[in-house]
Amino acid sequence: MRAAIICDDYFEASLEALSLQFQLSEDVAGATFMAAGSSAPELFTSMSAIFSPGAGSVGVGTIVGSAVFNILMIIGLTAVLAGETLQLNWQPLLRDTVFYSISIMLLSVALWDGRVNTAESCVFLLTYLSYLIFMRFNQRILGSEGFNEVNFT
């Protein structure tokens, strides 16, 4: 119960303040800040496994599987618990699907030989940076007028 109060009182207000400061729309704030928050456990678990000798191995399947689970559970539970028909724009769905597909393809290529080198790591970071830049200018690129909505009931 305390976590709910903290999230309600501070987390949402912090996200709103960051969104206003950086002039981000709700979908951009959700796709960046909320995604980073939901993925932080996988990131720190992976970092712990990499830098702690003898800490065990965290497989790629564990990390990717956890990310897929988070995506499906967040979207699925939101749709189930909304209690109403959700109106979604196709542009953000397409945008995120394209970037997610690119990241999975890059991961597949990087892991083809069973090793990830410095150049591949830099490509991952640059891809994420390009996503953040795209998200910063999201409304200019995709436009805010004339979104065609998709109904999910």
Describe this structure in words.
75% of the residues lie in helices and 5% in strands. By secondary structure, it is mainly alpha-helical. A two-stranded antiparallel ribbon has the order 1-2. Helix 1 crosses helix 2. Residues 145-153 have low confidence and may be disordered.
Radius of gyration, in Å, reads: 18 Å
Distance between the termini: 30 Å
Share of helix among residues?
Answer: over 70%
The run of helices and strands is HHHEHHHE
What structural class results from the helix and strand content?
Answer: mainly alpha
Task: Specify the biggest β-sheet.
Answer: 2 strands, antiparallel
Integer tally of domains: 1
Task: Give the SSE map.
Elements: H1 2-21, H2 26-51, H3 60-82, E1 86-89, H4 90-110, H5 118-136, H6 138-142, E2 149-152
Antiparallel strand pairs: 1-2
